[in-house]
Amino acid sequence: MAKLPCAGRRNILVTSALPYVNNVPHLGNIIGSVLSADVFARYGRLRGYNIIYMCGTDEYGTATETKALEEKTSPKEICDKYHDVHKKVYDWFDIRFDKFGRTSSPEQTVICQSIFKKLLAQDRLYEDKINQACRLYCESCQRFLADRFVIGTCPKCGMTARGDQCEKCTHVLNPGELVEPKCKICNSSPHLRETTHLFLDLPKIKNELVDYVEKTSIAGGWSSNSITITNAWIRDGLKGRCITRDLKWGVPVPLPRFEDKVFYVWFDAPIGYISITANYTPEWEKWWKSEDVELFQFMGKDNVTFHTVIFPCTLLGTGERWTMMKTLSATEYLNYEGAKFSKSAGIGVFGNDAQDTNVPVEVWRYYLLSIRPEAADTFFSWADLQAKQNNELLKNLGNFVHRCLSFLAKPEGQGYSSKIPDAPGAEEHALTVKLAEEVSELLQQYVDSMEKTKLKNGLKVAMSISSLGNSYLQESEFWRLYKEDRPSCNIVVRTAIGLVKILATILEPFMPSFSKKVASQLGLDLSDLSLIDADVEAFRTPWVLLRDGHVIGQPDTIFFEMSDEEVQAYRKRFAGSQAERASSEEAAKKADVKAKADIKTKADAKPKKKNATVNAADVKTPVDIRLADIRVGRIVKVAKHPNADSLYVEEIDVGEDTPRTVVSGLVKFIPLEEMENRRVCVICNLKPAKMRGVLSQAMVLAASNKEETKVELVEPPEGAVIGERVTCPGYEGDADAVLKPKDWAVVQPDLQTSSELIAVYKGAPFSTTGGVCKVASLASGSIK
Ligand SMILES: Nc1ncnc2c1ncn2[C@@H]1O[C@H](COP(=O)(O)OP(=O)(O)OP(=O)(O)O)[C@@H](O)[C@H]1O
User: What keywords were assigned to this record (predicted)?
Assistant: First the structure.
């Protein structure tokens, strides 16, 4: 039965940006919208809030029409097919919507047209009577071009942009503003042709909008990027927004002279949240026209202005009281191994690919959420996924859970025959009291973070409770207590099991499949996991969470190790674009089968690692980029080498007491004045070497093309701190005191610049606290 708002409860309506229907979503789409919203909605349900999560596919517009042309079918059939594809991907990712609908429903037409009529009645729309109403028309395709089918140069930042928005600087455009526009379908130059359209009169609604933004943005906890983007938009001056298009596949405009037009997809898409709710319950107005409902919206940064300016203006302009967005959680972008995820170019891992790997859903969710781009763009890398799976999930979380449960499950004489012991005196047991205090403090941080949609921090805090659990077990020496001091052992075991229950609960929003398994191993139902205030209070005394005599279920391993071979196989399998992968189909098929077989055999052959604690002495540091001590430096002085024309001698500040002297062969490529004061990436642990009589104490990293005719410095970003270490996600660890030349020879060939000009090691970007390191223009260069 559909939920409705209830007086006296927190009523929360969650939405995530409606994914566009004509393609398979990639991991960037998943973390940017649906997965983030799912975590928050799951958290809200655990807290006992009256919460619903609405989402669905955004189906109208030219992109669908064109896809239908390509696939020789109708837009409706395209939408049916891809709606299903999306649904299956999200089901696999354990995304739990209360309703996953679609914008091509009859309810959408009714609600969209009714909002339009109210805007008209309130005089918030105007027809364009001058040339602003021109749209680009392609003579060779004989059609008006939808915004996304025009590409050109952004007038603001000078980069390539689509007709509706520049993805580089997020500037929202009218297609006519693009410099040198081109038709994306046939590459000819479209021209402006006049056609009358309807505009939403944003200047007329400005005061109400500003009032709303001022009242809500800070108080509602909008993510800082969304506040910046919105304020910049308002400051730059609001202009009328065209809300109609010369298309067929869309909601018809119910006005004489406009019958052959439909609403622009960005006018109707946010109305989709409302119509999808109307598909969920006929009493949808109780959610959407209420002052007692908190609306939380999740999306990537490119969707912000549509949700903070255009959609609010649409609602405010009707003169009715709509439920306005309270909290907006907008992510930056997730990138793929140094490149950009792209649906059109087919770069990256897509929702259906993820299912086709050996990586279980809980690991996918954990990894994506642990690198959620909350404050800056982040990077997916297979090596980082491996590191997080092996170190954080297996060695920390899996180890703790399995250690507690398997000890408890052992027969009397070695364990507790699966029965929770009585544990009087826990509140006086010093180590346990200390643990309980630390856990309480972390739980408070967890709740604070989750309430503010700081999901990444919520996850980090939850994982630190698991680390505390491991330290607690270790310090207690429970195996010794079992023989020498059984009452204390009972306290430790019962407390640790309570901690397992806490972890299963607070990690449920992030990894529901993990929590389900742990609940069953604890002999509990999922419904026993709750985070209502009384439970959070009880979590302060973990030893009371499972009663004595309770019998747990069967312990089993939850996480497994990912091998280097698997990482290599995945990197190879998902390299390049989907088209490139498909073009060598036969070869790819064979490689694929082999890769999968390799991976499968490995997984099968692998003795199921029982979350064993790994002995540090057994771990051999692999030969990779972590061995190199790369630091952010600044050239404080530079001169030509006295004895060699091709060499510079620099003094570089790398955060030490005195600058280092460095000799580099860059004279031919970089003029002396461009070297001065330049920020650089420097390898600081190579053995100092004399170069033509001058002792060089480090090496500046630069990228070159194949012919070595062009060389560019690898530059740290503005925000990086001089002297900080440059690391590559997935390859963290101590550098060698001195980097051996033979190790450098192994590492160097994998150092490159990506298509996005980012310095990468095996796809993992050179990262600093200020962002990633880049070169000026040299893509696919070799770094040394
Ligand atoms: N790399 C990314 N990282 C994080 N979020 C992203 C990324 N790419 C897209 N998103 C977000 O994913 C959500 C769904 O995107 P949507 O399906 O509209 O497609 P899109 O990737 O933005 O591309 P297009 O508009 O070309 O279809 C949006 O909120 C968008 O901001």
Answer: Aminoacyl-tRNA synthetase, ATP-binding, Cytoplasm, Ligase, Nucleotide-binding, Protein biosynthesis, RNA-binding, tRNA-binding
